[in-house]
Design brief:
It is a single chain. This protein has 86 residues and is α+β, with helices and mostly antiparallel strands. It is built from two helices and two strands. It has a domain at 26-75. It has helices spanning 30-43, 49-71, and strands spanning 6-10, 17-21. Strands 1-2 form a two-stranded antiparallel sheet.
């Protein structure tokens, strides 16, 4: 989409739709975009991109883990309650 464009876009499960209008883009020129990419690649998983990725990864990992346990009714027992000789 370019500045001034308007579109209607769904969320992931298409349970809601959003009207989106692009006011401006940063970077706005091919040269700015290339400089942005170069800086991103040079930074690697360091500041500030590493922190953003780590926070997102941590949040989704925890959510996935909790959802999995809830969906499959996983219960972790204390070692004292587990009979290892069985």
């Amino acid at each position: 989409m370019q500045p001034g464009d308007v579109k209607v876009l769904p969320n992931r499960d298409k349970s809601a739709y959003y009207v989106v209008k692009i006011l401006n883009r940063t970077p706005s020129t091919p040269e700015e975009l290339e400089a942005f990419r170069e800086n991103f690649i040079k930074a690697g998983m360091q500041q500030p991109y590493g922190n953003l990725a780590q926070r997102t990864l941590s949040r989704y990992s925890t959510d996935w883990f909790n959802d999995f346990f809830e969906q499959y009714e996983v219960v972790i027992l204390n070692d004292s309650r587990v009979d290892l000789d069985r």
